[in-house]
Fold each of these.
Amino acid sequence: MTRISVIGAGFGALTAIRKLRAADPKLAIDVIAPKPQMVYYPSTIWIPTGLRTPEDVVIDLAAFFLRMGVNYHAGAVTGFKDGGRVVVTDTDEEIPNDGLIIASGGRFIKKLPGIEHSITPCEGVDAAVRIRDRLAAMKGGTIAFGFAGNPKEPAAMRGGPVFEFMFGIDQHLRKRGDRDAFKLAFFTPAPQPGNRLGPKAVSGLMREMERRGIETHLGHKLKGFEPDRVITEGGEFGADLIVFMPGMTGNAWFDNTDLPRSEGGLLKANAHCQVEGQDKIYVAGDSGSFPGPDWLPKQAHMADLQAEAAVANLLGEFEGQPPRHTFKAELVCIVDTRSSGILVRRTEKGSLVLPSTPLFHWAKRAFEWWYLRQYR
């Protein structure tokens, strides 16, 4: 019996599991992740303002794993043996495989001096709860929102959610009736924030910040943080709460393997999601460095598309076929403001930005329900 291991329990991993099981009811599937849970990160933007609770966005996967007939292994991967044919975990378990799909996500770069004084919002539910609790206790002050990238891996950036946290908190404070007691500031080393969304999106986001009275500090390299301030090469400014998304790199356990890495530390993959030079080892989502346009996004939709290609190619290899399936480079997101949303779509043919409307906020909530129903 063919045995395939899937590392991770996020978007790419769960899509891979569904596609594998749909293709072969008898396939042996091993899933390796620290917890049998999925965190629906797109909805963590609503935790600080009370639209969602942690219980709403953390999905217990026990029933899904049972339906899919997979073997779940609780543990964090620490390395490989036999060229990847055996996965080793921190519980000292060794899981053999005939093929492997890596969808274990990425890791935020925490090298800036004083970064411990900031909260990384997409680091998990606990981070969103910390923002919620700090916000609830504040009666006024400055809240700074920012993001940076991995200079050696332009695609390893997740800036979109920062705009959503910022706009959502602005709207929440207005609803709370004390927005005038707060100063909101946005900072990033990029001179044109959101440029990967497309030039139309940049101008739209800048207009939205201006309309909401949000200060901007753009184009200056970050030097670090202090408990009450953000420091850049262009100056510094005070902040009572700092919400900051650093760039991303690969998981620490990659260092314990012979897998090829990109300059930015991610797994080097080809257009077929195959880890370069490896036998039946594929990657999807934030773990990989993929060929494509410089705006290729790190988002759930992209991870799903890459997982589909990875599954198709891996199963094809077992049938003696060379990898031939690729993924579409496509960025699709709704930049939510808690009561409305801006739709952004970008492909290699061009980009589309539709102005803010409540319809897109409700579309984002409807998609959440539709997507999660298959795992609940």
Amino acid sequence: MLESWLDEQTPDDLRKQLFKGEEWKVSFYPTVAPAIRSIAQQLWSAPYRGSLQRMYLQGKVFELLATQLHLIGLEQERRSPKTTIDCVHEA
């Protein structure tokens, strides 16, 4: 169901990066990293009220999203085989 919706809505290159067979489950349900757990705790105990709380929570949601996307990118980097050029740059 999710992949059929993404087939229509997502560019091919992005879909190929995020979803490879059943690996999409790893992207959306990874192990919870300490950074994500910390942000979730900050979301739960927001120190502000009213419009300041809404702005704070929106910022934390963006931080959570950025952290999650960063972790997905690191995992994909770890999985992808290195080319000769990558090895030369690393050296």
